[in-house]
Task: inverse folding
């Protein structure tokens, strides 16, 4: 089944990097795009009108967390995510598989699905490929994700990795993810909701290629890279992403899940990734770490106590337009909620503007220059 009202068109290329238009029932997303993370249906401390003003095009919510509370039935009664949250633009929902499998001792993984004890009330829950699709159809996002199994590397005492056990577990998880993807494809009922398949395979190029080929054969509307950002080197990750793209239909959107820092985003764009999400900008903001055009700004540092300059003189966000480093440092140090909110606004604008710049650079054939500039700032600290 192909989703009605969903389309993707490539409009410009610069090497493997590409600019596209992702058409959804609730609006067009210009890609490459960053999806702000709204786990419970809200980006922490930032409301829908502010997100629109910052340049957000699409938000990401988590199926598992919304299933736990307030429940998909209530959200459906309120008009789905669009009616319930007030964000009228496109939504994507993650399947929640990663969050459930991270419950460790509360979770049991079987072929049927994932059984777990709810952290809220201790009751047993079961997520299956079919139920995860049904939950997302009730939530009503424009894009839904299949249930997958992500197996991180197995650590030995002292921090080393057990290569043999890791390989065995990742191979089994990859095969199960493929079987679950087939069940997910068969469970679809909504014609107006796109569904993305997920490629797994750890750091094995062979496994990831096989996963990509088999997932593509199921004919999803788009494809995601899962199970990356778990310790592999950046160059290794780029090689794996490029290898997978060789196996996926070039006409479909590609999504790198849950990763990363600004340099990671541009490395993904260089490989042809179209969509990104990550909690880094808002999580770092709450700890007083701001991304700027001159590097990372640790606003808690004493040297900013009387600094009247804006956090980033080159930034057009409301925080930088109205407030000083000294004021923001004061708010963060005193635990004032406004401090985390203002820092989040800045970091989100930085990420969204970075991909706006990436789209322009690709269209003008100068993406490599932008990529090199951001890479040079990756380890810089604002003094």
Result:
């Amino acid at each position: 089944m192909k989703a009605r009202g969903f389309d993707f068109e490539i409009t410009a290329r610069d090497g493997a990097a590409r600019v596209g238009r992702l058409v959804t029932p609730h609006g067009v997303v210009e890609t490459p795009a960053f999806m702000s993370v709204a786990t419970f249906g809200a980006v922490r401390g930032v409301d829908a009108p502010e997100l629109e003003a910052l340049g957000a095009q699409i938000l990401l919510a988590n199926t598992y967390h919304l299933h736990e509370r307030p429940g998909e039935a209530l959200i459906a009664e309120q008009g789905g995510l669009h009616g319930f949250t007030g964000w009228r633009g496109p939504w994507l929902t993650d399947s929640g598989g990663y969050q459930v499998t991270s419950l460790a001792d509360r979770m049991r993984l079987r072929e049927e699905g994932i059984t777990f004890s709810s952290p809220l009330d201790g009751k047993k829950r079961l997520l299956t490929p079919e139920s995860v699709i049904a939950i997302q159809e009730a939530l009503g996002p424009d894009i839904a994700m299949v249930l997958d199994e992500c197996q991180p590397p197995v650590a030995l005492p002292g921090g080393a990795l057990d290569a043999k056990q890791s390989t065995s577990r990742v191979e089994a998880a990859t095969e199960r993810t493929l079987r679950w993807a087939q069940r997910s494809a068969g469970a679809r009922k909504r014609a107006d909701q796109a569904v993305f398949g997920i490629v797994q395979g750890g750091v094995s190029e062979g496994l990831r290629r096989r996963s990509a080929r088999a997932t593509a054969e199921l004919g999803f509307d788009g494809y995601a890279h899962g199970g990356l950002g778990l310790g592999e080197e950046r160059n290794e990750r780029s090689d794996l992403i490029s290898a997978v793209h060789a196996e996926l239909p070039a006409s479909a959107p590609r999504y790198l899940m849950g990763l990363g820092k600004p340099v990671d985003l541009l490395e993904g764009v260089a490989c042809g990734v179209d969509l990104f999400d990550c909690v880094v900008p808002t999580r770092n903001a709450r700890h007083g770490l701001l991304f700027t055009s001159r590097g990372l700004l640790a606003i808690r540092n004493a040297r900013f106590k009387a600094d009247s300059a804006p956090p980033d003189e080159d930034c057009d966000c409301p925080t930088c337009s109205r407030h000083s480093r000294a004021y923001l440092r004061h708010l963060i140090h005193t635990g004032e909620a406004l401090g985390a909110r203002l820092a989040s606004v800045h970091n989100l604008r930085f990420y969204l503007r970075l991909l706006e710049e990436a789209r322009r650079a690709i269209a003008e054939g100068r993406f490599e220059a932008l990529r090199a500039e951001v890479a040079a700032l990756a380890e810089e600290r604002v003094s």
